[in-house]
Amino acid sequence: MSDSIYPWQQESWQQLQQLRQRLPHAILFHGAAGIGKADFIERFAQGLLCEAVRPDGHACGQCASCGWFAQHNHPDYRRVRPEALEDEPPEGEEGEGDGGKKAAKSTRTPSKEIKIEQIRNLADFMNVSTHRAGLRVVVLYPAEALNMPASNALLKTLEEPPPGTVFLLASNSLDRLLPTILSRCRKFAMPMPSHDQALAWLKQQNVADADSWLREQGGAPLAAMAQAESGNRDDLETLLQLLARPSVEGALKVADKLQKVPLTAQVSWLQRWLYDVCALKLAGNVRYYPRYQRELGSLADKIHISRLLAVIKGVNDRRATSDHPLSPKLFLEDMLLDYTAACTY
């Protein structure tokens, strides 16, 4: 097995090599968050640029192109992603002050969006000859982070792709992309690893309590490892204890306490809890929170299925606005009070 992709990606890698003979100008890799799509497409990008690619499609790791790629300065490669995902400070955060001294870093929060300026900056890159007379590769992820102006700018490029240029996009959620962008990309599904496969990998990484972390992250091994490395379940436990014993007073207290915790994470935690309640009610099993099986069973017994489905729909609808709420505290209060009302009716 190559050490450059994850064990559960071997079959996908082999399928991908079949596209190399007639390579599409844009491939959209899609699947659940936390399964390694970004790493996968960057390995594929390196293989496309490699000057001595191996028979299995992996880069040789020895040629000049691989050297540039490893140093993050390949002239025929560009990576586009939100500022918040960048390892280095975004452009413009540091500047030269008087006397040649660097100015203090900006205190603004790095953007979670891919902006139109980032797409426009690709123009010069795409309008010059490639450095080694090979392909030009643009990697972009997550594609749902494109704001509307950036989406429209990318669409124009995909409609008239420059020759010799390949776009590799990754998305956690196809339904958040413009249909016109979807129609101009070759879609490539990335599967979720089996529980046993993901669990074996986590144990190889010496992740303690790997099974619980994996279940809580919906079976996504990279997400599970990231959460395990943080070593902090306090926020999740605070929410789960309220969900197990819902009350109006508790909902207001939890909303106040967790208002600075990312809302998208909290919506996901509640979605998984509701999935467990529904699965227990209809099929008698629990997927995400087996530690709370007794409390989940008690809720499943007393909540009517119609109210359960209504609160599930309400939480799903809130997912679309959780990135940009007017007030995190009010968002949480509204969501948790709706849940409490459904469970205590």
Question: What is the secondary structure topology, with strand pairs?
Answer:
Layout: H1 10-17, E1 26-30, H2 37-49, H3 64-70, E2 77-80, H4 116-120, H5 122-126, E3 136-140, H6 148-159, E4 165-171, H7 179-183, E5 186-189, H8 195-204, H9 210-216, H10 221-230, H11 234-244, H12 248-257, H13 263-283, H14 293-302, H15 305-319, H16 328-344
Helix pairs in contact: 8-9, 9-10, 11-13, 12-16, 13-14, 13-15, 15-16
Plain-language structure description:
- It is built from 16 helices and five strands.
- The protein has helices at residues 10-17, 37-49, 64-70, 116-120, 122-126, 148-159, 179-183, 195-204, 210-216, 221-230, 234-244, 248-257, 263-283, 293-302, 305-319, 328-344, and strands at residues 26-30, 77-80, 136-140, 165-171, 186-189.
- It has a five-stranded parallel β-sheet with strand order 2-3-4-1-5.
- Strand 3 (136-140), helix 6 and strand 4 (165-171) form a beta-alpha-beta unit.
- Helix 11 (234-244) packs across helix 13 (263-283).
- The longest helix has 21 residues, at 263-283.
| Content of β-strand | 5-15%
Main sheet makeup = 5 strands, parallel
Can you count the beta strands?
A: 5
Give the radius of gyration: 23 Å
**Low-confidence sequence ranges:** 88-105
On the 0-100 scale, what is the average pLDDT?
90
